[in-house]
Amino acid sequence: MRAQTSHSDDALTTAPTDALTSVPSAWQAWAQLLAFFLVWSGSGGVAAWALRRRGEESGPSLALGCGLGPLAFVPVLAERGRPFVERTLRRAEPGAGEVDVVASVHGLDVSAVVEAGALFGDRIRRFTAVAAVDHAALRRSTAALQSAALGLEVAAALAGRRAPELAVIGGAGDEAVVAYARQHGFRYVVLPACTTLSPVRARRLGRRCDLSIVRLPVVGHDGVR
User: Fold this and answer.
1) How far, in Å, are 4, 6, 7, 140, 192 from residue 11 at the CA level?
2) Span 120-163, pLDDT tens digits
3) How far apart are the first and last CA of the chain?
4) Is the pTM higher than 0.85?
5) H/E stretch holding 87
6) Contact predicate 69/48, CB 8 Å
7) Cβ of 148: how many Cβ atoms within 10 Å?
8) In Å, how far are 48, 133, 201 from 180, measured between CA atoms?
9) What is the SS3 assignment for 159?
């Protein structure tokens, strides 16, 4: 009887121990799976953000990033090799001044070009009006390129005595314009009031790229800035 009691006691003491040790292992497996999912989707989200910064559409970029995870950095690296200038529509001879300036054109809003011409005048050496178009829009059809070209032609007509060079670039808004100015050695960037860059972001980019970024103030309906 004593031997039977000892065997039954051993069975009772070992059974709960096995059950308890199996619980943490299951939780650990779930935790590892969750950590893997977070790292996978998180790295894909970073890749999607990088693609959006390069001028891709946000929806497809996010879907690509979440689906491919770290593999989504492959198209990001491919985007880095994409040239900024998609097409130079008109070239212009440098002036006698010492100022190199880029002005951003948004659709038919050419205020930055007009203000840049009035602000720097005869001090201008190189003067370029730039329209940035998303890469996806440029690949999808020629309508985006034609619309940007129309805005640039309007800018050239209203620029005054100093006709600017005209360029369409692929990229995400005025961040691409700033990158273009840095790549080509410009000193000043003039952005319209409807710019996609916030004042804080513009100041940070200016310090990082050693550029002077002029952001036009918003004009009210009564003409007061």
Assistant:
1) 11, 9, 6, 71, 80
2) 989 999 999 999 988 777 667 788 888 999 999 999 999 888 88
3) 100
4) no
5) strand 85-90
6) no
7) 26
8) 22, 13, 16
9) coil
